[in-house]
Amino acid sequence: MLYNTLHNRWLRMVACVAGELICAAALNLFIVPLNLYAGGLFGLCQLLRTLAQTYLGISFGAYDVAGILYFLLNIPILLLAYKTLGKNLVVKTAICTISYSLFYSIIPIPANPIVEDYLTACLLGGILTGVGSGIVLTCGGSSGGLDVVGLCLSKKGSQFSVGKFSLSFNAVLYMACLILFSPEVTIYSVIYNFFAAMVLDRMHQQNVTVQALIFTREDESSLAQFIIDKLGRSVTYWNGVGAYTGETVHVLCVCLSKYEIEELIHTVHTIDPHAFLTVQEGTRIYGNFPRKLE
User: Fold this and answer.
1) DSSP code per residue over 120-189
2) For 278, left (φ over 0), alpha (ψ -120 to 50), or beta?
3) Please, what is the Cα angle at 43 between 39 and 44, to 5 degrees?
4) With contact defined as beta carbons under 8 Å apart, do 101 and 70 qualify?
5) Among 150, 221, 272, 278, fewest CB within 10 Å belongs to which?
6) What is the C-alpha to C-alpha distance for residues 211 and 280, in angstroms, rounded to an integer?
7) Hey, what domains does the chain have and what are their CATH numbers?
8) 123-158 pLDDT per residue, tens
């Protein structure tokens, strides 16, 4: 099920849209009713909406225009990304951004908070947002906003990584919230964002690097060639001897993301059903190891 979903283009897109639905529902049901602010570009849209209502006297009625603002601000970002990151990623990002903006706009915001305790609401909202965002990223999509800007800066050789850029932006955003609103609003907004980021790190499999050791008696060159051609990873292999049987065995070592391990396991067992495979997560890698977006 997981293998088919991750490696079927249409199922991945459906999963991305479902992830955006989870994110939008988490915000509208738990965070927005308490007048808290998300991080990133969407948090900026929420802030602009509040400033327009409070200081410019613009009334939007019961409608929350933050979703529309988010979509509009993503248009120039997507145009920039089209030249820098390529068509496929931009198309997926556009679909995810439209879905997120639509869901945020149509999911009703409760007149009274479903969960009145701020900490509990931040915990629930953060967990759901992290799960939804993790599904989107694991399936090769992106909600747009700061992630795309950070990727563009990184690809152009800027010292800002995606994480550093997002952290710097959120620091400025929440500093503005601290000046404009009560400290409680800012503190709980940061707590919500922290929970969301923590769960996202657990969910986002491209961020988890693993080392796989494969022990097989079959032709190691065919398996190595598959890893090179399909996964775009290099392989080191050597011959070993099984201490129990005394027979020669081929050992292959490859480093890849957790997102790719499902396909590797599937292929190893197709070529050699009796192969022995070990996987070690959290491997630190230095040097030539490309981080893939999709």
Assistant:
1) HHHHHHHHHHHHHHHHHHHTT----THHHHHHHHHHTT-S--HHHHHHHHHHHHHHHHHHHS-HHHHHHH
2) beta
3) 125
4) yes
5) 278
6) 5
7) 2-206 (no CATH), 208-281 (3.30.70.120)
8) 999 999 988 888 887 777 777 777 777 666 656 655
pTM for the complete prediction?
0.73
Q: If you average pLDDT over each of 107-116, 155-164, 254-263, which comes out highest?
A: 107-116
Is residue 243's pLDDT more than 70? Answer: yes
Estimate the crossing angle of helix 162-180 against helix 146-155, to 10 degrees.
Answer: 140
- In Å, how far are 110, 162, 283 from 155, measured between CA atoms? 42, 10, 24
User: What is the maximum alpha-carbon separation in the chain?
Assistant: 82
Check: CB of residue 48 under 8 Å from CB of residue 173: no
* H-helix or E-strand spanning residue 292: none
**Pair of tokens at residue 191:** 């707590």
| CA–CA distance, 168 with 160 (Å, rounded to integer) | 9
Cβ contact 219:226 at 8 Å? no
Element (H, E) at 59: none
